[in-house]
Amino acid sequence: xxxxxxxxxxxxxxxxxxxxxxxxxxxxxxxxxxxxxxxxxxxxxxxxxxxxxxxxxxxxxxxxxxxxxxxxxxxxxxxxxxxxxxxxxxxxxxxxxxxxxxxxxxxxx
Length: 109
What we know:
The chain contains five helices and no strands. The chain is mainly alpha-helical.
């Protein structure tokens, strides 16, 4: 499935995961911010949704809002790919990012 074919609620859910992974090393690099902004455009998020994503770039989503169990099976590869891309966006993968991704991968596969 393509990104722009995700249902509206799942697009925001994806962005919540992406922003959560961007925060894994406790800072948002410029490259990560640019990646998030490109993804917002690819997903065709409206102004309110984009504003919510900006809030997640200022303050990460709460852990209970980012539950891999809520990711539909048919969309798990999209979520994994997006998580992989955001942690690599700044050119450095921290140990926290690596561990978080490994856990997400275990839970979604």
